[in-house]
């Protein structure tokens, strides 16, 4: 089994109107090479599920600036001025979720669970329109699971079968996103032969992963730089 | 007093509340400053993007930008640290496994309900982990200067900004006083400035009282 493909082969897995689950927190753990490939396509009207919409003109921020994003589901968009303006003009739909609710909704989506009850956001503006019920004397709201057409994630290493390990806090949302897409594409810093990764330390088992590509980005100082 | 000094005085006072062995989440702003006043206390910092055992910021040449805190600044990790995914991180938070969350706030009402996510008169497009932390930490301490730039008291009888949740916080450490929230409402436990409770009541706009007969501790 060899799931490694060239990044130029990626385009055929995406179509207009897709819901795309994207790993990353800030830019850490963001599949920057896959996003760059999306920039080269003419697909549009995407729904992006991600904590935030990239940063500093990188990652999802570029995709947004190209006008490809119709809707964003995530927890933190305030720092993205252009997104705020687009939202005010009605050009961008935003579904704001608490960060833990976002993570759990995607985890449920990948785990065959329809949704869950949480105490987070009870009594706030973010609970509007959501079912509320009392469990053991405490108030909870219902949050529906989230699934996607394609999940694009970033890991440190993959073997050719698609087993993944992550690096420090670049793990963040990636393991959940990996479970909840119909097609799952992992961008990694290093591809190794099957058997090299210690099974005790594999975080995402290959069963979730469909394709693996080599990242074109390297960490240089405090930036991710396209270098390959 | 310069506002920068006030922020440090608040952070230092909050550090005194933290105990050996506790797992603590520090929010952005004044709460982040608490880390510099922990001294030799064995307090373990959690960062909601997936790290328990967070260390100080690295020297410039040692920056690894994969390794960041919730404010997206480069950090380090300490011996005994662990990394985990965002769902596990918020299971720690929501599930009551974080001993103390220290959070910034825009307003606190007299019962301890806070508004700390939606900036007034601006589109509300960010919440992050604020609501999860308010809901799930065993103890919540809020850190803020008592008065906003326009002079308005952040301690209010009723929130005019959007609530972060129905959970009441435990303690509000401000530059003027430390407030505790009890079943009988807000009580002053300590003055941070040389000011009488009558003067403080007048500034805040409603009557304040001390918790029981607590001895006045001045922290000038």
Keywords:
heterodimer, A: 228 residues, alpha/beta, eight-stranded mixed sheet, 17% helix, 31% strand, B: alpha/beta, Glutaconate Coenzyme A-transferase, nine-stranded mixed sheet, three-stranded mixed sheet, 12 strands, globular
Describe the structure in your own words:
- Chain B: InterPro entries: 3-oxoacid_CoA-transf_B (IPR012791), CoA_trans_fam_I (IPR004165), CoA_transf_AS (IPR004164), NagB/RpiA_transferase-like (IPR037171).
- The complex is a heterodimer of chains A (about 230) and B (about 220).
- Chain A is an alpha/beta fold.
- Chain A has a single domain (about 5-225), classed as Glutaconate Coenzyme A-transferase.
- Chain A has helices at about 30-40, 60-65, 80-90, 100-110, 175; strands at about 20, 45-50, 70-75, 95, 115-120, 130-135, 140-145, 150-160, 165, 180-190, 210-215, 215-220, 225.
- In chain A, strands 1, 2, 3, 4, 8, 9, 10 and 11 form an eight-stranded mixed sheet that branches. A three-stranded antiparallel sheet of chain A has the order 5-7-6. A two-stranded antiparallel ribbon of chain A has the order 12-13.
- In chain A, a hairpin with a 4-residue loop joins strand 8 (about 150-160) and strand 9 (about 165).
- Chain A starts with 18 loop residues before the first strand and ends with a strand.
- The relative contact order of chain A is 0.19.
- Chain B is an alpha/beta fold.
- Chain B has a single domain (about 5-205), classed as 3-Layer(aba) Sandwich (Glutaconate Coenzyme A-transferase), CATH 3.40.1080.10.
- Chain B contains five helices and twelve strands.
- Chain B has helices spanning about 5-15, 30-35, 85-95, 130-135, 195-205; strands spanning about 25, 45, 50-55, 75-85, 100-105, 105-110, 115, 140-145, 155, 170-175, 175-180, 185-190.
- In chain B, strands 4-3-2-1-5-8-10-11-12 form a nine-stranded mixed sheet. Chain B has a three-stranded mixed sheet with strand order 7-6-9, with no helix packed on it.
- In chain B, helix 3 packs parallel to helix 4.
- The longest helix of chain B has 15 residues, at about 5-15.
- At the A-B interface, helix 3, helix 4 and helix 5 of A face helix 3 and helix 4 of B.
């Amino acid at each position: 089994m060899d799931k490694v493909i060239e990044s130029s082969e990626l385009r055929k897995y995406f179509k207009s109107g897709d819901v795309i689950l994207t790993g990353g927190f800030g830019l850490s753990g963001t599949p920057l090479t896959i996003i760059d490939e999306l920039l080269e396509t003419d697909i549009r009207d995407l729904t992006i599920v991600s904590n935030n919409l990239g940063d500093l003109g990188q990652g999802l921020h570029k995709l947004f600036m190209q006008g490809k994003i119709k809707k964003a589901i995530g927890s933190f968009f305030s720092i993205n001025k252009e997104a705020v303006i687009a939202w005010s003009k009605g050009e961008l739909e935003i579904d704001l979720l608490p960060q833990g609710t976002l993570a759990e909704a995607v985890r449920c989506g990948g785990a065959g669970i329809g949704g869950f009850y949480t105490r987070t956001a009870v009594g706030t503006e973010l609970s509007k329109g959501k079912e509320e019920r009392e469990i053991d004397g405490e108030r909870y709201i219902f949050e529906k699971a989230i699934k996607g057409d394609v999940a694009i994630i970033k890991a440190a290493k993959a073997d050719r079968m698609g087993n993944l390990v992550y690096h420090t806090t670049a793990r963040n949302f990636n393991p959940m996103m990996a479970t909840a897409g119909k097609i799952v594409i992992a961008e990694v810093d290093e591809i190794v032969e099957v058997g090299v990764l210690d099974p005790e330390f594999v975080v995402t088992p290959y069963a979730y992963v469909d394709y693996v590509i080599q990242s074109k980005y390297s960490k240089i100082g405090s930036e991710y730089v396209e270098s390959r | 007093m310069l506002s920068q000094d006030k922020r440090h005085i608040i952070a230092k006072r909050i550090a005194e509340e933290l105990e050996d062995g506790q797992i603590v989440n520090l929010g952005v702003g004044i709460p982040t400053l608490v880390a510099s006043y922990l001294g030799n206390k064995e307090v373990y910092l959690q960062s909601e993007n997936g790290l328990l055992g967070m260390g100080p910021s690295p020297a410039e040449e040692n920056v690894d930008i994969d390794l960041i805190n919730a404010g997206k600044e480069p950090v380090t990790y300490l011996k005994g640290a662990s990394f985990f995914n965002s769902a596990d991180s918020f299971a720690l938070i929501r599930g009551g496994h974080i001993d103390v969350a220290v959070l910034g706030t825009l307003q606190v009402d007299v019962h301890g309900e806070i508004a700390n996510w939606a900036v007034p008169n601006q589109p509300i497009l960010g919440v992050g982990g604020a609501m999860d932390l308010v809901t799930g930490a065993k103890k919540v301490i809020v850190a803020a200067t008592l008065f906003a730039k326009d002079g308005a008291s952040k301690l209010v009888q009723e929130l005019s900004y959007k609530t972060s949740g129905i959970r009441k916080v435990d303690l509000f450490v401000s530059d003027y006083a430390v407030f505790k929230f009890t079943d009988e409402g807000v009580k002053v436990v300590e003055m941070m400035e040389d000011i009488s409770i009558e003067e403080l009541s007048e500034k805040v706009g409603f009557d304040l009282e001390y918790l029981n007969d607590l001895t006045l501790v001045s922290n000038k």
